[in-house]
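Usage example:
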Amino acid sequence: MSIDRRQLMAAGAAAALAGTLLPARAQDKVVRFGMAQDFTVVYTFVTAEYSQGQRDYFSLVNERGGVSGWKIATEIVDTGNAPQRGIEAYERFKRNGVVLVDPLSTPVSRALVSRALQDKINLVTTFSGRSDAADGEVFPYVLPLSASYWSQAAILVEYMARQDKDLKGKKIAFVHIDTPFGREPLPLLQALARRRGFELLPFAYAPPGNEQSAVWTQLRRARPDWTLIWGGGVGQTVSVKEALRNGIAADRIASVVWLSESDMKVVGPAQAKGVLKYEGAASGREPKIIQDILREVVAKGKGAGPQDLVGTSYYNIGVMAAATMVEGVRKALEITGGGAVTAEALNQGLRNIKGFTAEGLIPPLSTTPKDHQGGGMGRVAQWDGSRWVPKTDWLASDQDAVWDLIRASSAEFKKTGT
Amino acid sequence: MDLLLFTELAINGALVGLMYALVALGIVLVYKASGYANLAQGAFAMAGGYLCLLLASAAGLPLWAAALLSLAVLFAGGMLVERFLLRRMIGQPVVMVIMLTLGLEILLRGLVPGLLGSTVKPLDLGIPQTPLLLGEILVNRAYLAGGGLALVLIVGAVLFFNSPLGVRMRAVSDDKIAAWAVGIRVEHVIAVAWGLAGVSAGAAGILWGSVQGVDWTLSLLLLKALAIAILGGLDSVPGVLAAGLVVGIAESVAAGVLDPLIGGGTRDVVASAIILLTILVRPHGLFGSEHIERV
Amino acid sequence: MFYRAAGIRHTDYRQTRQLWPLAADRRLLAAIAALALAAPLLLSPLALNSYLTPLLLWTSAALGLNLLMGGAGQVHLGYGAVMAIGAYGTVHLVRAGLPFELALLAGGLLAALIGTLFGAAALRVKGLYLAVSTLALQYLTDFVIVHVPAISGGSQASLQVPALRLLGQPVTSDAGLYFVALGACALLTVWMLNIRRTSFGRALAAIREKDFAAEILGVSAFRYKLLAFWVSSFVGGVAGALYAFCYYKAVSPEQFHIELSIQLLATVIVGGMGSVLGCYFGAALILLAPPLLNHALAALSRQYGGLIGNDLLTHAPLILYGALIVGFLLFEPLGLAKIYDNLRKSLLVWPFRHARR
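Running the assembly step on the lines above writes:
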């Protein structure tokens, strides 16, 4: 007999593991969301805090009795940015009756788009995914519910124009990670360069961006008036450090939304004073909704993660996403009259949000069945050494140029399915 | 092409190359002593960065003490890996050992950020951020410190091979059976080689962690280290130095010259291209010794 | 008692060369085939879609790599790139109007062509050097795909896959795609099993053991190494294309990165190098264990709240995966196939025990 005890134990463990796969018991008055996000590979810099923010907000809602008695349940799974694991998680969510999926990963969300459209399950892609999904007619079940990267770039350029009174003849350097995410704003920036008369100087660095000295050496020689950095995680911190080392003034550096307090700590909080970024949700602990979370969830020990991360930029983006989803549930319940919240009902709810501000956390978000972006608003915030301070009001800019691009891209999808 | 630009790219590239070479030093030490390549070097570097932070924050030690202590822990870690993992694989085909080190890399990449937190953390070695200008040429101060330290460690490794333990290591790498026959404790020597590999990886991890912040991407240093190790010769320590300079300068200059033409991202291609060219033209590298397979 | 080997007498060469000489083996195979054909009726759509179909596709790819690594003894760390070439090639050809069957073969040939170029490095070096050069080729292919928008499908680097059409009829249902994957996997399995009985298989075995000795005997190492890369890259290309058509439905470069190559390598090694059945076992373990663990941990965390830190929870599949690889290599280097083999050998003589190792 050559099956030894080791192998028997392994078989027993496998059987026990399989036993935990019994499907979730059906409970009444529960709305299920599926969060299949990338905790371990590319989006590590944001996902932990984002997920913590989402879960804390859902806890807050549930503590208060849910939305008209309907509680929110989440299933959280790591996809490692692998489309295949995303698909597997999605299929499992479907079986468990999930009505909304949040992948927070561009490759995974792109892989899920055709499935979501076919199965009619809501796919919410906060600050990620296909920018052209803002076109609600072509993508009824894919909802960014946040400013696309094109809108963000437009707002940053608008801020630069306000500071310099006129951008004609100026040089804007665009330092980006050499991936589709990094290259995405290029068409819009080129359109804006034509419109406003500035010269766009693109510089790409190889992912993940931990070594960018060659890029900044050249950039220094080009002497740009403004520098726009577009990356995530390691690439961003190294970009800011290199920029400062090469003598670029901190208040002439503007960044995409992915720049947080932890990134600034890595750069050096005092040195990075003056760096600007796009902000889609207020950061810090002042907003009422964060105060509520601190009081009703964290103080009672029900927080989903370390307390010092409550109120950071990415945490608040997570709260923003969660709050928008819950607002969609609320609207859906209005439509169904208190009945079960199906994916279709939630879809109607999410597409008819009017002026939602999450009690002052975000700019007023208004979606329509044609516009899933919600207005493309945001503001520019500046690092003052310890926190992000807003420098403008909530604004949107050049949305006509943005929508030209959105419509061109979604028409392409409608025609060829790409 | 602008000579000043070229010089600046070359200088910074050379310094970065030296910092990569520190990781490659570990690969070469292990290959020299035991004949296996350690593809978990990147993960060791990441572990070094994380350990240093953990010791500094949890035990409240000043950073230099935490760094030294984490290097000591990695020395022990390298020896443990050799003792418990590699020794069982003696005699197995080389692809199994490669897979074992890859498996170890995946395990560490999951375990270390899983236990110690996956958000990026700062590691401040106290190097000022102000630019250092030599005339018109800007030298990155962090790279200067990192490259200088790496140079010191690599030269130290070269000198080490003249010490009694180093001579024994050379004997083991030459012919294990003969070394055994003259009374050298081969297992000890190999274990020490792995320990030193852990130390060099840890030092590189701490240096790179101060440049880019500590998170799992530190384990991506592996590819560059492999390119350097292969170009220099897998069993040559002076080769690591030379190859580090070559790879660093080539990458930096290529990124500076080719990126505007191709549109970016040529840095990683340079490492792959160097590996391929070396293997096709001169497989044993610039300074490596030719491997003779006996019938 | 179950695997009666007694009383089997062969009367001609064809019988001795049978793939499955024991009747019990043949019965077991028939039962598995019947279950596989009935799977769409027996399993839930989730299990079919997310577990069985990817398992079959993964096994198909592993079979190609197994031929190269277990059969010919070469190391290949760039198999993901080969699959990518097959997938992108086939998708572009189908989009250009070629019928699916032809495009599949053409994609496979394209992958074979470029894959053999990878293999040219094998003619000069072995072992670690070969591994590293295939690794370098993987990164180069990634770079080329991402930077040539014509290949990768525009600036968003995502290409929608047209519907699969067999003999002109579109196949879009889950069951249909599953049967396509099943058919391909079955064909590949029989092909790989058969290679061992052919002169090609024996030549590969000779090269695997000691290539210069084989050279002396007249088996051209040059020719057979290149052929091994050719065949295995063809299989890889076809598997990659099927993966895109039957499962992903949209190709993007991230799907074929180095992680895929390492996972396939782990599949072949954990399953048992050189064993066809091992590919199935390895695929099942490597593909299915991490998500199962994911869900088990999620269930545990729902019950016990925040006992396990979130970072640890989300990294647990990686830890399991690494531990599996290390564990198998340390304790059972011959893989799952060896464990199955032990079981089978003991069943051969059950209830007697004289087969004990």
